[in-house]
Amino acid sequence: MALTLMYITNNPEVAQIAQRSGVDRIWVDMEWIGKEERQAGMNTVKSHHTIQDIVKLRPVVTDSTLMVRVNPMHEATKDYCGSKEEIDETVKAGAEVIMLPMFKTVREVDLFVNYVAGRAKVQLLVETKEANECIEKILEVPGIDEVHIGLNDLHLAYKKKFMFELLCDGTVDRLAGILRQKGVKYGFGGIARVGYGMLPAEYIIAEHYKLGSTAAILSRNFCDANVVKDPNTIADIFAEGVRHIREKEMEVAGFTARQYQANHEIVVEKVGQIVLNITKKQ
Predict the structure, then answer these.
(1) Domains of the chain
(2) Closest CA to 8 of 69, 51, 86
(3) Chain-centroid distance, C-alpha 221
(4) What distance in Å separates the CA atoms of residue 176 and residue 14, rounded to the nearest whole number?
(5) Of 201, 154, 170, 162, residue with least CA distance to 280
(6) 23 — phi, psi (to 5°)?
(7) DSSP output for 60-76
């Protein structure tokens, strides 16, 4: 079963290019509350999309699924609406999947599911220590459709130096085992193009198949459409990049247990070297 590939953009032209290339989900990212503080000084994507971006993309996202990450559960302020109104407006604008980030408690998840009220699929983004450590209780909440393991913020929460350390220390394995047992679809992290990235995508794709993951984000290293401006170049990157990912998936889907183990050992070795290099630079 092919991975569900997701790409973050609020640009209708880029969304159409991604869609034509076989990207399964176009992702509008409205999360901004607390993000700057958590990721201060890091070279991470902070999109701060809005409801109007959903409205703008809705007519052009016809073959892919339109997905929206809202803010963490929050009360209204004089400057911004509360979670219930934000979710209502997100549904009204046409979101088909709504993602909840940065939750810590069962109560937050229960409230979120009730606010969505079956009007869209519910996806949880597990990226806090608290969510990781009480995942069994969280999954008892009825109405959860999918889970994504957010390696970026989760590795920060555990004071790791590199997000893919969580593939090596048992964190993702543990979560994956629980999610499989509960029968909940899940994905983790992001991937660049095959042959690219600090940890090249081909090794991560094999880990997805080894662990039974069903989804991955196409990262900024796959194609940063804020830097690459020419639509034809973007189209070429997407067409070739998605094709190579699908080819690699077909290859690793046939791996034996020994081949998966050999790939994991390579991942551990490469991640160890990356962490060592990061440490030397600090």
Answers:
(1) 4-281 (3.20.20.60)
(2) 69
(3) 14
(4) 32
(5) 162
(6) -70, 130
(7) T-SSSEEEEE-PSS---
Report the predicted TM-score, pTM, of the whole model to 2 decimal places. 0.94
CA angle 36, 39, 44 (to 5 degrees): 100
Distance CA 204, CA 210 (A): 10
Question: Quick one: tokens of 253?
Answer: 């889907």
Give me the torsion for CA of 174, 23, 227, 38, rounded to 10°. Answer: -30
- Which position has the token pair 């699908």? 246
Specify the DSSP element, H or E, that contains 24. none
- Other beta carbons less than 10 A from residue 97's beta carbon: 20
Taking only the tens place, the pLDDT of each residue in 121-161 is 999 999 999 999 999 999 999 999 999 999 999 999 999 99
Strands 97-100 and 65-69, how do they pair? parallel
What 104-109 contacts at long range (C-beta under 8 Å, 24+ apart), as own/partner pairs, is: 104/128, 104/130, 104/131, 105/130, 105/134, 106/134, 106/137, 106/138, 106/140, 106/141, 108/72, 108/73, 109/138, 109/141, 109/144
Write the single-letter amino acid at 88: D
